[in-house]
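Supplementary Methods, section 5.1.

A reviewer requested that the exact input to the structure prediction be made available. We therefore reproduce it here, unchanged from the version used in the analyses.
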Amino acid sequence: MPRDLSERAQDFREQWLARSGGWLSELVITLSDLTGIWDIIILSGIFVGSWIVLRTSPMEISLILGFAFDLAIPLQYHNDEELSSRQEVHLQNYWPTFMIGCIVEGVSFFLLHPDLFTLIVCIKTTFCLCIWLSKDQEGLQIKPRRDFKSDRDDSRSSRSRSHRSSPSDSESETVRPSHGSSSTPSHIPPCKHVPDAYKYLKRAGYDDPAIAGMVLTANQADKDKARKMVKGWASEKDPKNIERRNKEYGERARKAGWKPPPSSGSVPSDNSGGQSQMPQSKYIPDAHKYLKRAGYDDAAIAGMILMLDQIGDKDKAKQQFAAWAQEKDPKQIERRNAQYAERAAKAGWKGSSSSSSSQPSGGGSGVVDDGPPNMPTSYHIPGSQAYQALKKAGYEDVAIAGMIVGMNMGDEKQALSNFKIWTEEKDPAQIKRRNESHGKTGKEVGFPDKAKMNAAVGGSPGQRMKARLGIPVGSVNKVEKAMKAKKVDPRLSQRILEILKNPKSEKDIQRAIGSLKDEGIDIKEPEFADGFGAPDGHGGYRDIVIGEDDRNLMMRKMMKRKEFSREQVDGWERYLRQPLSRREFEEKVLPFAKRVDAFIGEGYHGTGPHQFRAKGLEMVKRRIQDQNAVSHAVIDQAILHAINKKDSKEAQNLLNKWAKDGLSQAEIQQFASATDWT
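The structure derived from this sequence is encoded token-by-token as follows.
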């Protein structure tokens, strides 16, 4: 079904125009918002007008105008220090194209008739603009979003290509498993209007019972209406609506007579990882689901279920189960993971490793590092299984280390695809080539030092996703406390915590961040940073977090100086991401900023030993600014003086007084004469 034109226009704005359109995007978007006309129509009008001007102008004027238009947008990014760093690759890729166009234009100026020359100028300018807008800031081609139909067509064509290509040629391509998520399970009724409905709805976060109810509902509608319904459900981003639909359509499926498969109970099908081998509790049918949600590994859950069945008393078993499922202390969960996994192993439980599948089941959650001591931790495939399979295929240890690091750096699907290709390789020449290339990678990341290799990866896939989005690793417990204080719905709270503990994609994390903001919780606020508020060992507290803009500025200034090594740059970046005390800020950060000639902005006064709320201090600063015409540096000094009063009541009274009446003249002179630490 063709996509709605308004949706295409919105995609054009978000994907093409707004990313790197510069002054042109600002002009077009502003006019579009004012007039209500789609961006593409306004851009077409500008395009036609520009062609008329260039075609009717003298050769010299046409040459200058075309040259100026081709340079205006790229130079806008090049001359801005912040934007140039973001668009560095994009700019590097554009200049060769621009120079080739200029050479063609220059030759045409002397050889061609004026009418033909102005046509060349128009074509060259249009081509350069299209080249610029068609690439993102990394210099990669922007791919249009696809609807259900095109997605299915592409999946068919990709399958046909994978049959034609050899393993050596397609090492970096994704091999689609025959048992992948796109196939509808036998217990889900088929959707006659949208064959891949299960895949899209599962990806959106719906449970199997709800999907069954949705499919039954869609089957009762006509083709167009069914596709609209599935598309609306699959594009839902609000966890509250997803949770509501899970209940509504799950109940509808049960009323229609749908039943879950007896082998899996009510556990969702994506929590496989050994579920098919999981013992069933005779006292608590849903034990696996609730224990998995609490954070226990499959091996430990198997041991727990075996223990529950040995208790012999239903009430005592339920009491013990409730204590496990309600546990919030990560140390206790980790201890039980080890304790009950050992119990399960002694009882003969082998989990998913007992299956004879040639392709391992991946997953970043519950990673067990059972590989050799000279191998990095494997996040997508069990370490011992990965090592043994690659060793059997003929690869050397140093190359295997490089391969595991490479798999860790990518997503699960890509890792499983490459692993399958590597282990099925029979060509000695290809094995030798990979031993050399991946062996070089292994040496570069520190083989055989396990700690160095793990550090090169940067943590589990979930940790790397959170780091890219600026989410502190230890923020989960703080978020949980904040949600309890805000009395967030327990089901929504549980869903958010599951995403933050074990994220599957950056979209999931962003969705959780959005839900938290709706509840008045901003996970990117300083107080959620790891170590925020901890003592610094010298009587101070680490309550200052360097802003991203200031940190990036210092890093750019540092990299421009040849005196710093790559290790020093990385070390400073890690240090500047941590919360700092006032003493650490003045003794380390400020001298460093002056050394690299970077100006640090205002507001780095912290929250003081009494832990005043950052938002409250910002409000006081704004009110002082309304009362007194003084600089931000003076106000920062005043706030610093107030929050460090020994008596919290005295500090609060002083802040209240300034918020109401502003600073006195004597106080202004006092704080203006203080050291300007910004």
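The radius of gyration is 30 Å. These observations are discussed further in the main text.
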